[in-house]
Design brief:
The structure holds 3 protein chains of 3 kinds. Chain A starts with a helix and ends in an 8-residue tail after the last helix. Chain A is mainly alpha-helical. Chain A has 11 helices and 2 strands, in the order ααααββααααααα. By secondary structure, chain B is of the alpha/beta class. In chain B, strands 6-7-8-3-9-10 form a 6-stranded mixed beta sheet, sandwiched between helices. Chain B is globular, with a radius of gyration of 17 Å. The termini of chain B are far apart. Chain C has one domain: ABC transporter involved in vitamin B12 uptake, BtuC. Chain C has 15 helices and 4 strands. In chain C, a hairpin with a 2-residue loop joins β2 and β3. In chain C, α3 runs antiparallel to α11 and α3 packs across α13. In chain C, 47% of the residues are buried. Classes of the chains: A mainly alpha, B alpha/beta, C mainly alpha. Chains in contact: A-C, B-C. Chains A and C meet through α4, α9 and α11 of A and α5, α6, α12 and α14 of C. Bound molecules: adenosine-5'-triphosphate and magnesium ion. Adenosine-5'-triphosphate (ATP) binds next to β2 and α1 of chain B.
Chain lengths: 282, 239, 346
């Protein structure tokens, strides 16, 4: 029982992290068919925001507010300065964003050094849940992710901006014929995706090693999430994260991490064969 | 193989795109070596219908039997290999290859009914492309691309050739030349041609099918179709 | 054959002769002769280095065959190179076979492992209609996970430090055993092998098969409607490409004598893209040139500061997309075209 609860909560933590990182990726991918290989660096930027804020004596919550703003700013900059010129050339976007990711990593390493950054979580201690004692911070993370998922869902469902995004995902030319400024939608969605990843970075940071190359681990997995779940919606991301994170969480318990990751890859590939458009297609 | 039955027998085809029914309950038969024309206003579903026949789209209902074989839902390349060839509405030749290479790529070497397979040299000659054989297909003029595409279709040794607006965007002379090329190059195979150019259809003077809003509204010799007041209303009247 | 056909056939024949007479081919031939004579005038260290660069060139060639001819960019090609290298190392070190059978089995096993991985991944993806960027990210994930496994499964792979003690390639023919431990002979073996693979690919791709692949890249739907089973063609190219990468990796491991996780990881996957891009995608010879040029650059830049190299790669990728999307070598070509166009307009 106790073990089971811990296992489930561990999986939920992993799923929450994956959802946060993948949401932005899925929106960007679904909207612009753009594969942004620098997406992992938005996570890193979020984590470094926390490290820097705390190093300067600020607290966690300040960083949690700052990170999405900084992330959005970076996202906007990249969309305006680079992606915009490459929409017709998906392979070029892959190459360029990959290069950008490397430059960002090296830049961070040059400025902050190669050693892991020190970050601390805002709350410590453990909470008793059904007989299992579980770190409070992780529970907070799970709760926070649920809030963000709901907020994203509401944003896409009920706001004008969300409507525009969904219209563009459905049919870009039709949307632009209806007078939607698709370029602006692109830029804003890109900023939104980056902001979400940066928030994820802050939330993840206390649980992991904060180094310049940390993004890549999340990048590969979140692409699985998007492929498995289907692009363009919150539902797909949640489904994909649940599958990838749940699978990995449960298998980690019995198998070495590497084996479970490899099995997740295999599962993702097999799922694509039978559901090419993902579990929850847009 | 099976004489007596038609070469192509499309039965009650239907195709929906979401809420839109682009083809509703259309049946059509084509005999060996017969030529049929499909006419109809823009958006009538003509291209969609050809897409169903050649397998680029699957019908949401209905059945297609070709030469005694049920080809509904068969993979594209198999449909091509059993003898259905297609010329697209937008000329789609391989721009990075030369004319000759385009034809050679399309040579899949299965001739039907004991005929000798078409060779690149023959087709170049028949379609009057020999002089430009080593030009890059991407650099060809619009008309030449259309002819090359017909040539590519012929290289697959089809029993049935589907032509989507073979004369679209052509000058009058080019259209006449196309009609002539079709007469010589495709004399011994069945052809379904979509056409907007009434002169061309009149010149072909074949069995004509009228599509309107996805449905087949009239069918018969072109002279009858031309005289049909309903067809005049939906289509010819606008010319 | 009509008279006209004969004339155009003759014209094509002269065009082909002209191709061989072009300065480019003279340069390539000269370069090859320089490479072949290397053991006569270079030291053992340089011979070994150039041999490794040649193997990297072969690895780059495998990517070019895929990326250049089908447009599918593999972002994880080092997974296949690494599978070859690890396959060779594990067979020769762990199984305790006699040297000749170990070498042979290592070559087959390494290459086979790479091809098998490509076959499985490729079958599931390509036959489900997955193309383009989707395939690219799956290959990316493949290399990330392959590296994780190489690091994590230390009982088999030696973990972070890898495996040391891969013996030189040893062949046995009719009881006569021969180990390629002499640097010059091993070098020539590699040069010969790379040249043969290059020639075979070039030969195959300049014929109808190459045109079919070009056609598929150009317009896959159209290629299907003229009867090509494009899924199968693409899968074949993917698997063969992985096989060549695996072969290069297996031989590379016998040269260095060890394998390590960076032979299977993301960085090498990135670098091989760079080699192809520098040499010119789709040119087949270019990847070798690219491997040389980049290797030379890496020496120069890393000698200033090793941390500069990844930064340089990053900047290179960005520059490539915006400045020379068809490869560095195409810059000259582009200049010529531009001049020709201006000239024609004038
Ligand atoms: N892939 C598709 N998705 C959604 N709707 C489609 C698709 N293809 C065609 N349609 C719709 O089906 C209808 C029929 O289109 P189709 O292209 O078959 O017409 P057509 O008769 O060939 O017209 P034209 O003379 O302009 O070529 C149109 O309303 C079109 O918008
Ligand atoms: Mg049409």
């Amino acid at each position: 029982m106790e073990q089971g609860v811990t296992l489930i909560l561990n999986s939920l933590t992993l799923i929450s992290i994956l959802v946060l990182v993948s949401l932005g990726l899925a929106i960007i991918f679904g909207l612009m068919n753009v594969i942004n290989l620098a997406h992992g660096e938005f996570v890193t930027i979020g984590a470094y925001t926390l490290a820097l804020t705390q190093a300067m004596g600020g607290n966690y919550w300040v960083a949690l507010v700052m990170a999405p703003l900084i992330g959005a700013m970076f996202g906007l900059l990249i969309e305006k300065g680079m992606i915009r010129y490459l929409y017709e050339k998906p392979t070029s976007i892959i190459l360029a964003t990959w290069g950008l990711g490397m430059v960002l990593q090296q830049g961070l390493q040059l400025v902050f050094g190669a050693a892991p950054q020190r970050v601390s979580s805002p709350i410590s201690g453990a909470v008793d849940i059904l007989g299992a004692s579980y770190p409070a911070y992780r529970l907070m993370l799970i709760g926070f992710s649920i809030l963000i998922i709901l907020a994203c869902y509401a944003l896409l469902r009920f706001t004008r901006f969300g409507l525009d995004i969904r219209a563009v995902i459905q049919d870009r030319s039709m949307a632009s014929a209806l007078g939607i400024d698709t370029e602006r939608v692109n830029a804003r969605a890109f900023a939104l995706g980056a902001a979400l990843a940066a928030i994820a970075g802050v939330l993840i940071a206390p649980l992991t090693v904060v180094i310049a190359q940390m993004g890549i681990n999340y990048l590969a997995r979140s692409f699985f999430v998007v492929i498995v779940g289907g692009i363009g919606g919150v539902g797909g991301v949640v489904a994909g994260s649940t599958l990838v994170g749940g699978l990995e969480g449960f298998m980690n318990y019995h198998l070495p991490v590497t084996v479970s990751q490899a099995l997740v890859l295999v599962a993702a590939i097999v799922i694509v064969r039978f559901r090419p458009r993902g579990l929850v297609p847009a | 193989m099976t004489t007596g039955t038609p070469l192509l027998d499309a039965r009650a085809l239907q195709r929906r795109f979401g809420g839109l029914t682009a083809i509703r309950d259309v049946s059509l038969t084509v005999e060996r070596q017969e030529t049929k024309c499909i006419i109809g206003p823009n958006g009538a579903g003509k291209s969609t219908f050809l897409n169903l026949l050649c397998g680029t789209l699957r019908p949401t209902a209905g059945q297609i039997v070709f030469d005694g074989i049920d080809v509904t839902g068969m993979p594209l390349h198999r449909i091509a290999r059993i003898g259905i060839a297609r010329k697209f509405q937008v000329p789609s030749v391989f721009g990075r290859l030369t004319v000759r290479q385009n034809l050679s790529v399309a040579e899949i070497g299965t001739a039907h009914d004991g005929k000798a397979p078409n060779t690149v040299a023959e087709i170049l000659h028949k379609l009057d492309l020999t002089e430009i054989a080593d030009r890059s297909a991407g650099d060809l003029a619009h008309g030449q691309k259309q002819w090359l595409e017909i040539g590519m279709a012929m290289m697959t040794n089809p029993k049935l050739l589907l032509l989507d607006e073979p004369t679209a965007g052509m000058t009058v002379e080019e259209s006449l030349k196309t009609a002539e090329l079709l007469r010589t190059a495709c004399a011994d195979i069945a052809v379904i041609a979509i056409e907007h150019d009434m002169r061309f259809v009149r010149a072909l003077d074949c069995h004509t099918v009228v599509l309107h809003q996805g449905a087949l509204i009239a069918e018969g010799p072109f002279a009858d179709i031309e005289a049909n007041p309903m067809v005049r209303d939906v289509y010819l009247g606008r010319q | 054959m009509s008279a006209q056909d004969q004339i155009s056939a003759a014209a094509r024949a002269t065009a082909r002769d002209a191709t061989f007479a072009r300065p480019k081919f003279v340069l390539i031939a000269a370069g090859w002769l320089v490479l072949a004579s290397l053991p006569f005038w270079a030291g053992a260290y340089n011979i070994a280095t150039i041999r490794d660069v040649l193997l990297f060139g072969l690895f780059a060639l495998s990517l070019d065959f895929l990326w250049g001819r089908t447009g599918i960019l593999s972002f994880g090609h080092a997974a296949f190179f690494g599978l070859g290298a690890y396959g060779m190392a594990i067979v020769t070190i762990k199984l305790g076979l006699d040297p000749a059978s170990a070498s042979l089995l290592g070559l087959l096993g390494g290459t086979g492992l790479a091809m098998l991985a490509a076959l499985v991944v490729g079958y599931f993806l390509i036959f489900s209609g997955v193309r383009g960027t989707y395939l690219t990210i799956v290959t990316l994930a493949l290399t990330v996970i392959a590296q994780h496994i190489a690091i994590g499964w230390s009982e088999v792979t030696g973990g972070d430090s890898g495996l040391i003690g891969v013996p030189p390639l040893t062949f046995e023919l009719f009881g006569w055993r021969y180990a390629l431990s002499d640097p010059s002979q091993f070098y020539w073996f590699v040069l010969l092998l790379a040249s043969i693979i290059l020639l075979v690919l070039w030969r195959v791709l300049s014929g109808r098969y190459g045109h079919i692949l070009t056609a598929i890249e150009d317009n896959e739907l159209r290629a299907r409607t003229i009867g090509h089973h494009t899924d199968r063609h693409l899968l074949t190219v993917f698997v063969v490409s992985a096989g060549i990468a695996g072969l290069a990796g297996a031989i590379y491991a016998t040269g260095t004598g060890f394998v390590a996780p960076d032979m299977i990881g993301l960085m090498l996957s990135t670098e091989v893209i760079m080699w192809v891009a520098v040499g010119g995608r789709g040119t087949l010879v270019g990847p070798f040139i690219g491997a040389f040029v980049v290797w030379w650059l890496q020496q120069k830049i890393s000698s200033i500061d090793t941390k500069l190299w990844p930064m340089f790669i990053g900047l290179f990728f960005i520059a490539m997309v915006f400045l020379f999307p068809n490869g560095v070598m195409s810059l000259g070509e582009r200049g010529r075209q531009l001049r020709a166009r201006l000239w024609r307009r004038a």
